[in-house]
Write a structure and sequence with these properties.
Blueprint lengths: L6 H19 L9 H11 L7 E9 L5 E3 L2 E14 L3 E2 L2 E2 L22 E2 L4 E6 L3 E6 L3 E2 L1 E2 L6 E6 L15 H6 L2 H20 L3
Parallel strand pairs: 1-3, 3-11
Antiparallel strand pairs: 1-2, 3-7, 4-6, 5-8, 8-11, 9-10
């Protein structure tokens, strides 16, 4: 689904900025014992590995290079993830054997991809019902291929065991040869960060 930034989005951003400024004036910040501040910190960390969020927005940019920000997110089963374009043209495509190998999506999950996202404010949403690890890529070519530039990302849904996830298995020699070096390096980084968190499980 493609949508533009609404007046409500702009107002929400402005309100969040004002709230942060007031908190700074009141001296509420890191290290505070205020229970509301502690709860706010949990909310701010939601989506990071180890702190699954119920929904999340990934920003997509072209400058200074194509990137998903953040590259790795952690959400609960049933969470909706939005990809929101800040600059450039992009898409969001699962690494799935049916549309864009190698297969790096949980077993039994259908392939998925966004339409082309043309410019700032364009967005795509997907709800992740099935627990697992999902790797995805931006296949657009604007000056250069965004995949060659390494614009890939990962969605971790719930607390799957890494040994059961296709996205966390070693690449075959054929897959390594077919993938750009920056993508291979990103996958290695993703696994280094994801594996210990999933093995430790929820606190």
């Amino acid at each position: 689904m493609i949508q533009q930034l609404s007046r409500r989005d702009v107002l929400a951003t402005t309100a969040a900025t004002a709230t942060a400024a007031v908190a700074g004036c009141l001296g509420i910040g890191p290290g505070s014992d205020d229970p509301e501040e502690m709860a706010s910190t949990d909310v701010e960390n939601a989506g990071e590995l180890g702190t699954p969020a119920d929904s999340f927005t990934v920003l997509v940019r072209s400058q200074p290079f194509p990137e998903f920000d953040p590259q790795i997110i952690h959400v609960t089963p049933g969470a909706t993830v939005e990809w929101l374009v800040e600059t450039g043209r992009h898409d969001v495509v699962a690494y799935h054997e049916d549309i864009h190998p190698p297969h790096r999506t949980p077993h039994g999950v259908d392939a998925w991809e966004s339409p082309r996202l043309n410019g700032p404010g364009s967005s795509y949403e997907r709800t992740f019902e099935t627990e697992g690890v999902y790797d995805y890529v931006d296949r657009q070519e604007v000056c250069i291929s965004h995949e060659i530039a390494g614009n890939v990302g990962r969605v971790v849904v719930g607390w799957p065991h890494p040994n059961d996830e296709p996205a966390m298995q070693p690449l075959s020699e054929e897959e390594e040869t077919a993938l750009p070096i920056r993508v291979r390096n990103a996958f290695d980084m993703f696994d280094e960060e994801t594996r210990p968190v999933l093995e430790a499980g929820p606190e």
